[in-house]
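step: validate -> pass
step: tokenize input -> pass
step: predict -> running
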Amino acid sequence: MPAKGQLRSALRSGNIPIFDDIDFTRLNAYINTHEDALTTSLGTQGLAEFRKVSGQGELLIREWKESEPRIAGRVISKLYRFLNIKGAAQHVMGAIQGADAIAIDFLKAGIDRWEKEGTIEAEKAETLRAYLSSGTVNNAIHRMGVHMVLSIVIAIPIPGLRSAARFLWTLFFWFKFQLKRVFRRPGPDGTKPENIHNPLVMFIALIPGFGAVAYLGARPLRQKILIRLMLDQSAWKLPFNLYSRFRLRRWFSPNSAITGQEFNIAGLPESVSAGSKDVATGAVEP
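step: predict -> pass
step: emit ->
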């Protein structure tokens, strides 16, 4: 019979039936919570040895468990994770909190790679970084990061589930924006803020795989250089070295011979664009 509070942990880890099992999650939490009391009773060195033994025990028990078929336990563990809606929701919401950082890091990594490869000049690379950090695109970048997170953390292998999640997420904020727009007064110039959760974004969100970058359909991100950047960075991360094998760089990255051509990124702040408003369009001839 499981001890009080041990049944849920056993279901989650698949340790059913319970036999010589230790809930290391609770044990480590106990050590951290009662660190001062354990230091007093065991001493600093004793507590360090306790932590070391606990870590070693967890590794050894995990190896022991993984070496056995444990068919019933594995099935029960998967069913628990599938039916644990609260836990799944908490996992998704926790991942979404850092969504904007995921998207911005993904794009800036592509800019750094272009600059290192000599595909784009340092001045133009800095202009792109400044544009991604500006207020005009910050919200759209965050929403795109949410779509990227939803495409990763939803592990349930149901066809179309990730696409449906992205679509419903965008649809919710589209309705929310429309309600605010009805009751919000126009700005000093008589204009109202633009809804980045537009039907184009919702349509792209339904496309498997590519829907993760659906917010490229939002006006602040609907720039040729940004679309090329996202496509090139996505292709560069393909497995089995497909980027080099199929020479995908010539299709997505800007051609160094054309980097002198100028175009203005719509919405780029003047303080950023002054003296460096020309950025490569990246019109590549195959």
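step: describe -> The chain has two domains: 6-83, 89-273.
step: cleanup -> pass
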